[in-house]
Specification:
By secondary structure, the protein is mainly α. It is built from 2 helices and no strands. The radius of gyration is 17 Å and the shape is elongated.
């Protein structure tokens, strides 16, 4: 691969990371994860 392909791949990875971060920090996902952890600890 050449430099331009690496740059596009890097940008795609950063964009995917940003979307994943937004999803994981949303209220619905956080409450679901909290519920799963609470059930596991009981």
């Amino acid at each position: 691969m050449n430099t331009a392909e690496y740059a596009v791949g890097t940008l795609a990875a950063v964009a995917f990371g940003g979307v994943l971060l937004k999803v994981l920090t949303s209220d619905g996902v956080q409450s679901a994860l909290t519920a799963v952890i609470d059930r596991a600890l009981k």
